[in-house]
Amino acid sequence: MSQPSEAATSLADALKQIKQLTSDLATEKQRVIDVQNEASLRVGVWKEAHSHLSELHENRKQDDLKKLQDAKREHDELAKKLLLKSNYHHQKIQELKSQNEFHEKEVSDMAATIFDLRREKSSATQRAEQYEHRIKNLQLRLDASLNCIERAGRKRGISDAGDEHRDTVSALANHNMDGTINTAKKARLASLEVVVPCTQCYTKGWPCDNGDAGGSCRNCQLRQKSAVCKRVMCKDYDGDNCKVRDCTYAHENDHFRHVVNYTVLKVVHQGKSPTEREAEEGKEDK
User: Fold this and answer.
1) Percent of the chain beyond pLDDT 70?
2) What is the pTM of this model?
3) Read out DSSP for the chain?
């Protein structure tokens, strides 16, 4: 009797275990179903989110592409404008270069013209100084000739004719370029014999006089240079063997107080002499 009881008890326990396992299995199935439902829900949410993100990404991509196209179009337009401006400025630069070359040529031509004019002016000035020096030398020679004529006329007893001839030639010699007569020079020439110019007047190209009793000439007196008013001695200082009839060097019998040994002086013209300026001022005062 004990064996069937044990078998029944074992069977009951087995059934109980089976029932418990069946209950646990049902619970696990429900849990699996819940997990599957939750997973399906999450997958749906993920798909929806993914779809939304894809849509946003696509929209942003389209916007970026549109912006890129707009930027490229603006860049192309700007590049086109810059190219036009560059061509315009290049053309202007070429025009300015051409104008600059033209102006440089004009400046060069003007400089050459100015140089030629200055050279012509310098040549004309030199010629004028040479003519002025020649005129002064001719006046000095004329003075000497008039004195010789006067002395010769007196020796021959025809001083009146000599004086008349002297006055005529002196009047011609004392006419200025404008036709007026230099009265101061005319009065001074009347008392001159052969003129021995001092070194100061000779080197400056000025007309000179024999001074007051062999002393300083009028130019040196006006310049307050009486101490340096000296005459150059002739090679034949005593005058006995001098072959020049109207020698313009100093001799012993000329009685000049200040003389220097014979030398050749260089002439550098320095414009009007003090006596000439004095004569002009006298005319203006009148």
Assistant:
1) 76
2) 0.35
3) -HHHHHHHHHHHHHHHHHHHHHHHHHHHHHHHHHHHHHHHHHHHHHHHHHHHHHHHHHHHHHHHHHHHHHHHHHHHHHHHHHHHHHHHHHHHHHHHHHHHHHHHHHHHHHHHHHHHHHHHHHHHHHHHHHHHHHHHHHHHHHHHHHHHHHHHHHHHT-HHHHHHHHHHHHHHHTB-TTS-B-HHHHHHHTT--S---BHHHHHHT------STTS--HHHHHTT-GGG--EEBPSSTTSSS---TT--SB-GGG--SSEE---PPPP---SS-HHHHHHHHHHHH-
